[in-house]
């Protein structure tokens, strides 16, 4: 929907600003007026939607998203992912900007988006639009990663102070202290006509270079708009010597170990007991005995 400017007859553009008022350190509230003024300078009439509960962003975009020329999400990964899900469910191809202001901003870091709030707001106006793949997990959309097991919650549970001091090393240390609590999951993973079966302590189906905040994938292997996921499955080490080899390999981006299955695919079928929880962009998703994860190519039009 566009609104006619009664002064000069020009057509005004409509922008939806979705923000999570409790994201991160709640700092976004201090910048709202400045952000709205900035968007207005670029010719947008701004509608503001603060999220008050989970899935609120998805529901709002699904119902009203078609009325806007651009959407900007000021939040962490969770609300941003919900906004993308709303666009996907509605079948909308509307440019989406992102102002990262959560406690974990993995999507923004992966795509090199500015972390400063006002710089990111300006980038949402001036950045180039690019198409990115997203994923669909048994009908639920996710933006960049579906993961389970040992490292899947680290970027969301690791102390922010520890992350600030030690960087990615903090994730590894936080994971190591819980090694004795890690329970492997037995499953069969079907992809590309192959079957990967075993007891896995971690798995990720992703479209990103940073996996669960714990380790990085080689950038030359990751194309975020090729219609393919990167899949990594980590088998249970038999002893501490194998743990050391595994962690060293992950730190050095060496996935040649027999403990690691690493491949690309457009579709994954997972068969398991279904009793464990997955993390979709850091948000919990209850598993099931059979899970289909499909790449939805170039659905997201990100301003990045």
What do these coordinates show?
This protein is of the alpha+beta class. It is built from nine helices and 18 strands. It has helices at 32-41, 56-64, 77-90, 106-110, 117-126, 154-157, 160-166, 168-176, 240-251, and strands at residues 3-4, 11-19, 44-50, 70-75, 96-100, 129-137, 140-142, 145-149, 185-191, 194-206, 210-211, 215-216, 229-235, 260-265, 267-272, 277-280, 283-286, 290-303. Helix 1 runs parallel beside helix 5, helix 2 (56-64) runs parallel beside helix 3 (77-90) and helix 7 (160-166) crosses helix 8. The longest helix is centred in the N-terminal third of the chain and has 14 residues, at 77-90. The chain is elongated and about 60 Å long.
Give me the secondary-structure topology.
Elements: E1 3-4, E2 11-19, H1 32-41, E3 44-50, H2 56-64, E4 70-75, H3 77-90, E5 96-100, H4 106-110, H5 117-126, E6 129-137, E7 140-142, E8 145-149, H6 154-157, H7 160-166, H8 168-176, E9 185-191, E10 194-206, E11 210-211, E12 215-216, E13 229-235, H9 240-251, E14 260-265, E15 267-272, E16 277-280, E17 283-286, E18 290-303
Parallel strand pairs: 2-3, 2-4, 4-5
Antiparallel strand pairs: 1-2, 6-7, 6-18, 8-10, 8-16, 9-10, 9-15, 10-13, 11-12, 13-14, 15-18, 16-17
Helix pairs in contact: 1-5, 2-3, 7-8
